[in-house]
Amino acid sequence: MAIGAKDKIDALLVKKYQGLKVDNPVIQTSMVDPNRMLEAMNDFAAIHMNAINIQQQLKETCIKAISLNIQYRKSRNLKSRRKVAKAAN
After folding, report:
1. Phi–psi pair at 83, nearest 5 degrees
2. CB 14 within 8 A of CB 4
3. CA-CA distance, 50 to 54, in Å (whole number)?
4. CA angle 81, 85, 89 (to 5 degrees)
5. Contact at 8 Å (CB) between 88 and 80?
6. Where are the chain's structural domains?
7. Residues 9, 20: Cα–Cα separation, whole Å
8. Residue 34: what pLDDT?
9. Residue 72 has what pLDDT?
10. Measured by CB atoms within 10 angstroms of the end CB, which terminus of the chain is less buried, N or C?
């Protein structure tokens, strides 16, 4: 992949603006400190990772609770069926 003008219009634009130097002091004064930005990104990533871990733990807890409830209902139903069968005899 070549760097530079691809056609005549691009070549003319490059020639026109290659000598100009853009010095915008507003950009430098309003720029966020890169270290602070990196710290903010790390904090965001850590919070996101904690949220994912909490979500996974909650999911596992709900699955366990649902499975225990299903087993409890089955065993409870079996006991009540035995009582009904004994009462019928």
Report:
1. -65, -40
2. yes
3. 6
4. 170
5. no
6. 8-88
7. 18
8. 84
9. 60
10. N
CA separation for the pair 43, 36 (Å, rounded): 10
Residue written as token pair 């871990």: 53
Query: Averaging pLDDT over each range in 7-21, 30-44, 50-64, 75-89, which range is the top one?
Result: 50-64
**Within its chain, how far is the Cα of 8 from the centroid?**
46
Tokens matching residue 38 = 């990196």
Distance (Å, rounded) from C-alpha 10 to C-alpha 17?
Answer: 11
Q: What is the pLDDT of residues 17-59, one digit of tens each?
A: 877 766 666 766 777 888 999 999 999 999 999 999 999 999 9
